[in-house]
Amino acid sequence: MELNATYAFDAITEKGAHLVPVTGPGLAGLQNLGNSCYMNSVAQMLFSGTIPELSSRYGAKNSLQKILLTKASDDLLCQAAKLSSALTSGEFCGPVPESAEVTDSSTNDPKYRLAPRMFKHVVGHDHVDFRTGQQQDAAQYFQYLLEKLDRAELGAGDRLKSKDGSSTAIVTSNLFAHKTESRLVCASDNMIKYKESAPETMLSLRIPMSKSTLPDDKSPDLKKQKSEDSGDSKEKKEVPTVTFDACLDEWSAVTSVDDYRWPHLQNSISKGSTSQNKFVNFPRYLLVHMQRYELGDDWQPKKIEVDIDMPETISLQKFKGIGPQEGEKLVPEEEASSSGSGETSNAPAAPVIDEGALGQLMDMGFGMNACKRALTAVGGSNVEAAMSWVFEHNTDPDFNDPLPEGDSTAAASSSSDVDESVVMSLVENLGCFTADQVRAAVKHCSGAADRAADWLFSHMDDIDSAVAALESASSAGASSVPTSSTPLEDGEGSYNLIGLVSHIGKNTGSGHYVAHLKKDGKWVIFNDEKVALSEHPPIKHAYMYLFQRSDTASKPNEEY
After folding, report:
1. Are 432 and 441 spatial neighbours (Cβ–Cβ below 8 Å)?
2. Residue 94's CB: how many other CB atoms inside 10 A?
């Protein structure tokens, strides 16, 4: 009863609609293994034929012999191929019931039931949340699955080949990968710095409720709805609407940044500086995640009751970054220092230590060398961050030793590869990890903050051993994160909506997930084992939206 009372339950499950069941290749349901609907929805979106590149790599037309291993039960590529082949072949689709109604009895025959137990195990066995039988966040699972597939694909060698028989370095995440460009304007001198982010596979958008509107009482649709609900004794709450354009405008709006350290100002902070986000490239597929959940007054996540006015065709061209323009005063790039041998060093210049901050730290009873090390590690002037560093490193054998001359990173091992502002932000926001642990995770995840946070929480049970393993691999010269050398795709910023994942419930850790995918121009609902033509896809209620770039609609990437 509580579940039925939650927002948009009837709309998302299309309760009361005459749903006509369908069967065939790409139209097979997946058995719920117990709170596994989040996995089923993401798996249907990726492997049931909606994305032809993944069907070509893993589906029925791609022989499993390419990916077969001696220990297939523990190999992600083999399990992904099994699942995709089962979904796209049509061999596990039962007959359409004569009643033409979607019922549970239509999937009672065991030979027509797909239970992806081995796939669930091989993906989640080493993750603190996904290995459990509890409900999880589908958006987080999507990103984690892509990272696992990337690692498996890059390590597959000759087992995974493109159509021409050559080994491929194109990973699955390249289909979704996009970079963003931040245009930073310094308030002190109006100089501009352009900064590119690490590639991301999901565009996460905040919903600006300040730009929401309530439905117009005079609209024909609302009058019809009120007439239909007139016999209902309960008064229905009016739900506000926010347009998708408003969400994009909020994401790309000019915002103030008061914590950025400007290299041309000796790493000092300039209050009143601004930043604006733009796309660097438009990926083949764009996965949009709507932040429908927020922390309430009791610090518990709660769902924002709002409709998203989402068109099925969108244009993002106005959000494309154009880089430095003529007449702009750019922040000079940090010059590399030259050694006596004539070789160029990539180490950044040492931050200037603020004398006032140094005095504050020394007044607390720490030695000058220790205070200098602490301030050097955190940018030169942040006393609070330096104190945190002191408490973490006060047992280091070189804690009170003088800094080596010309060494700007002696106090912060391997920090030259890491954006310290990202590290300190995660330390402050997560609250349960040290700066060294966060720094190792950020470096391991190529600077991506969300993936670093996910890595930290997935290794909470033995975080010190996990960090030690990363440092050991780094010192041995091994790359902690396999990367693909393939450049990111780009094209015109016009997209068509081809998939939805909707969530029912108060928060992402409970409730139920349902997927709607466009098959041959028609919307189909995938509610675990129930697969049927959709009458009213819940576009305005979705949690995740899958878009395909318009110029790739009939041109799949042959490299997959």
Report:
1. no
2. 17
Q: Between these two residues, 294 and 551, which has the higher pLDDT value?
A: 551
pLDDT digits (tens, 9 = 90+) for 473-499: 555 443 334 455 678 899 999 999 999
Helix, coil or strand: residue 449: helix
pTM passes above 0.90: no
Helices (H), 104-188: 117-124, 138-154
Q: Exposed e or buried b for every residue in 364-401, given b needs 16+ CB within 10 A?
A: eebeeebbbbbbbbbbbbbbebbbbbbebbeeeeebee
- Minimum mean pLDDT among 29-43, 56-70, 316-330: which range? 56-70
Q: Are 308 and 545 in contact (CB under 8 A)?
A: no
Residues 397, 401, 404, 407: is their CA dihedral positive or negative? positive
CA dihedral for 480, 486, 492, 495, sign (positive or negative):
negative
Residue 410 pLDDT greater than 50, yes or no:
no
**Cα–Cα distance, 499 to 492 (Å, whole number):** 20
Non-local (6+) Cβ contacts of 181 within 8 A are 194, 195, 196, 197, 277, 278, 279, 280, 321, 323
